[in-house]
Amino acid sequence: MMNVVLVGCGAxxxxxxxxxRQIDGLAIVGLVDLDAERAxxxxxxxxxxxxxxxxxxxxVLDQTRPDAVFDVVVPAARREVALSALAHNCHLLTEKPLxxxxxxxxxxxxxxxxxxxxxxxxQNRRYVANVRRIRRxxxxxxxxxxxxxxxxxxxxxxxxxxxxxxAHVLLLDMAIHTFDAARYMAGGEPAGVYCQEWxxxxxxxxxxxxxSAVFDLGGGKVFTYAGSWCADGFRTSWEGSxxxxxxxxxxxxxxxxxxxxxxxxxxxxxxFAKTQPIDVPPLDPADRVGGHLGIIRDFMHAIxxxxxxxxxxxxxxxxxxxxxxAIESAETGRRVAITQETP
Length: 343
Fold this sequence. Notes:
The chain is α/β, with parallel strands linked by helices. It has helices at about 15-20, 35-45, 55-65, 80-85, 100-115, 130-140, 170-175, 175-185, 290-305, 315-330, and strands spanning about 1-5, 25-30, 50-55, 70, 90-95, 120, 145-155, 190-200, 210-215, 220-230, 240-245, 250-255, 260-270, 270-275, 335.
């Protein structure tokens, strides 16, 4: 049995608790929130009787001595929570983003390394079935290596609350899902970025609701991102819409169920090489999916086997580096180099 304390009982905690109660061998033994009444309400909602509830993570960890901590706090509190969990010798699974600054991200990853604990991030777009299919298809070499990856993200949610007041709202709050998916599907590592942000006249956000970025993913791969939080009409999927150009063909994914590919065939049709459709194989049974549920299971498996989970912090920090690199570029108006050591 793996005992877990969850800290941060806001709306997002429901996704975690919904997943946790589907997993045999996992027990929530404590809930922590600055608002004790909110923690009590969540415990009642999920019939978590007999657990420890408190406002101090250190105190609850001292009392329960769990195997792991689930961190669902706001990003500004993440470093404090992470260091507390690791100091209590707990493994750590955290909601995205890994941290709210490059410095805090490095501090958390280093603390996990020194503690010898598993640290992973809920980067759940990797656990989408078509993302897995695309990665496996590209790895097969059916259309050659990816050279250009293009993603569009255009939705117009009226969240209310903190998002409409925060700076860099699109890049900081949402874009990491698309950035990480691009890294994963194309197998690239970020080397540099140029980004521009703007606030359209139709926007209801304070700053940064629209952005366009060009990333160098190394090895001749380029990833372009165009996105907006205030684009009414022709809404894309929350996964975005994708075109991946490879050495011998292309793949298109609408972010929903439409996933098609074409490969170069023999001969020409006037100026153009002939192409023909090619099937993208279905999901492989070995591919891990399921959003929060899949990631929590992956995290538990890593702890039980002494292996590294796919969304480990030491890897996820590279996707976070893309976010902070894009923000720096947007603020300075220049291309920003992204190193593997400095997110």
